């Protein structure tokens, strides 16, 4: 009768098992200032399971047994097939879960959500200078080569213009799902969506890709803020 | 006849015992720049005892045996019942102690005091632009959801305006107690009070809440300073 | 028949062996923000071998077995003698390799490539205020003593003007080789070349020199950006 | 015949022995950005010996056997009595040594030299706005309580004005000794001297005092630069 809560799903000796990897990633993201004050989150899909860090927990102190697990049957399944098959009794699931799932449905293997101040500041600067419908644009910076041009299209070239769509924030995080999905449709090549006054969602086909793309984007946001302060334009067009 | 100094109160194998936890927290706060040069401090209430880090000690090097312990009898007791029942012989108690106690009397389980530069800069900017009686205000930033609206009232909503009162600094830290208590009465929902040109006191019902609320506030102060530099208003009202 | 891939070249108990040292350096560089998102790289020459970190790998997670090794016969050899004698099967060689080799041909023992934002910002400020042909110049800062005046010429003096040439970036990193070599000829005393909108290459006769020179230069770039913001000139001439 | 080089002076099981403590401090100072690129240094006096970190070594990698030791006979001795009684064969003594000794002659037990960018920027701002003879002044910031008012005079009060003299840099570090000693005479209460375009020397009666005073000063320099950017005056007088 043991393990009614599927605890075996979060018990592994493999340091790269999602239940071990998410806590390690979150600790690293904490030191980068991405998940301060329980903000942000991370999710990994592995075969038929999706692992999600819980809500409201100090991200640098997370442990494997704190992970939520959803069933994620393949091949193409009805959305109703998704359900929590493991819940830590004393924790709440992350409000980001539907947003992570939106990325997984587009083939992602890992999705990272940060509250990076550079991301927030970029959304504010874009709004101030280009208005609400505009997306973040930058070109002619080497680091944009660290962001893919789209699924199967390789990485951005140095002279390409990287565009990251920005959606408006909502009072409840789960209500972002619809506009996030819309942005994913309008920008089918993007691997990230900025959320105004909130942060960013970045995904990739595996953990390494999601993490390094998130790093490259954060580098570009920080550089863009510094460039703005020094009155240097983000693209060659000005 | 041993242990006249109640050394047993700071000896525990539990890593989360206050005598072990305060040094670990202080080391983390040091790396965040909150307790540079012996500044700042941390206190935890546990049952009938209050643990306080000593004054004038390098915060990243603290050890359990450096902790002061006060008796804190419950239920409601006369203030005279509070007294040090353990004092490290070679150390001085923190001048913050009466301020920590003011938080504990309002139900806090942990109180953190930082000298964060972002907190100090915010108090200076508020004074310059809104005058001495004004409090810090920010709204429409996701991270304010990490700060509670008041005891039993849940967290701030995205569109709510977070207000943190600011009191004037005094030459002697213990003299802050009266104005801190007055601010607590005027802002009964606040979990923090800024001290102009000095830093901040943040409290919560337990260590995790006090710490994550302190992180969320510090995030907001840093963002507010950066927003000010970029001529972005802190609230939608401007 | 074992070891057809020369795995023995990356197996050593010596912590300072290039195969062990490059991962340790890359981890440190990651924490300095120099190799975010798989950017940047490091190469060490040891006797007849050149060790290079692979492309597209998380720099803080590198392992000895991830290293590429080139044969580098001495004395003076035909360029055709350089070839990979060890390739990790699942990794791609770094596009920086020809650039690292250019430094080794000028006597370097170690070459470091970073995407430091301070380096990038300095290249943008120099272009904006002095145009495309200009190099970065700074004088009268103590830290320039940490940068050599040229091979066999000792370190810069406090009143000397340190000059670092800047070359234009190219869409493909290997295409930088020609202009890098030209800059090395025009500035035969330099130990570094900045790449506009990209980063920097720094070399030295051994690992310690390359690393500390890279640190001193990065310190100077950061200081120069801060000085510019405070309207302080980089040289006494203004 | 063993130990002609007095190696026993740097061999101790006590983690707080100067030969063990200096490497640990230097590693911490490296992570604070104070001793980048082999810059800066630290020295401790213990009884009849003065321990000094060597010149030109990566500060985060120092080891006890890298320490230089000078004889420092007490009571009052002729300056000629000071001499190196232990020299690591492959290293050069620090050019800061005469500057450290100047502090020890005034009763210091530890002296720290950093190249902190905040210190350098403060010296540049003071020169620009107040001219070459001026010293750094700040008041009405809580952290100035972390800096002593003078030997035997306790710490600065909140409303006191903290003054740190600034001397001009010289091409050779040892040539700073005379002006450093002159500043120590003109400001007999100071525990620190800034060096324009170079960094700072901070001392204290023991390691903890020197280190925490250095931290408090660096905090104040950083805050002062940020205040300047936000057009906030350093003292109430403006």
Automatic annotation (TrEMBL), chains A, B, C, D:
<feature type="binding site">
    <location>
        <position position="198"/>
    </location>
    <ligand>
        <name>Zn(2+)</name>
    </ligand>
</feature>
<feature type="domain" description="Class II aldolase/adducin N-terminal">
    <location>
        <begin position="20"/>
        <end position="225"/>
    </location>
</feature>
<feature type="binding site">
    <location>
        <position position="113"/>
    </location>
    <ligand>
        <name>Zn(2+)</name>
    </ligand>
</feature>
<comment type="similarity">
    <text>Belongs to the aldolase class II family. MtnB subfamily.</text>
</comment>
<dbReference type="InterPro" id="IPR001303">
    <property type="entry name" value="Aldolase_II/adducin_N"/>
</dbReference>
<dbReference type="GO" id="GO:0008270">
    <property type="term" value="F:zinc ion binding"/>
</dbReference>
<comment type="pathway">
    <text>Amino-acid biosynthesis; L-methionine biosynthesis via salvage pathway; L-methionine from S-methyl-5-thio-alpha-D-ribose 1-phosphate: step 2/6.</text>
</comment>
<feature type="binding site">
    <location>
        <position position="96"/>
    </location>
    <ligand>
        <name>substrate</name>
    </ligand>
</feature>
<keyword id="KW-0028">Amino-acid biosynthesis</keyword>
<dbReference type="GO" id="GO:0046570">
    <property type="term" value="F:methylthioribulose 1-phosphate dehydratase activity"/>
</dbReference>
<keyword id="KW-0456">Lyase</keyword>
<keyword id="KW-0963">Cytoplasm</keyword>
<dbReference type="Pfam" id="PF00596">
    <property type="entry name" value="Aldolase_II"/>
</dbReference>
<protein>
    <recommendedName>
        <fullName>Methylthioribulose-1-phosphate dehydratase</fullName>
        <ecNumber>4.2.1.109</ecNumber>
    </recommendedName>
</protein>
<feature type="binding site">
    <location>
        <position position="115"/>
    </location>
    <ligand>
        <name>Zn(2+)</name>
    </ligand>
</feature>
<dbReference type="InterPro" id="IPR017714">
    <property type="entry name" value="MethylthioRu-1-P_deHdtase_MtnB"/>
</dbReference>
<dbReference type="GO" id="GO:0005737">
    <property type="term" value="C:cytoplasm"/>
</dbReference>
<keyword id="KW-0862">Zinc</keyword>
<keyword id="KW-0486">Methionine biosynthesis</keyword>
<dbReference type="GO" id="GO:0019509">
    <property type="term" value="P:L-methionine salvage from methylthioadenosine"/>
</dbReference>
<feature type="active site" description="Proton donor/acceptor">
    <location>
        <position position="142"/>
    </location>
</feature>
<dbReference type="InterPro" id="IPR036409">
    <property type="entry name" value="Aldolase_II/adducin_N_sf"/>
</dbReference>
<keyword id="KW-0479">Metal-binding</keyword>
<comment type="function">
    <text>Catalyzes the dehydration of methylthioribulose-1-phosphate (MTRu-1-P) into 2,3-diketo-5-methylthiopentyl-1-phosphate (DK-MTP-1-P).</text>
</comment>
<dbReference type="InterPro" id="IPR027514">
    <property type="entry name" value="Salvage_MtnB_euk"/>
</dbReference>
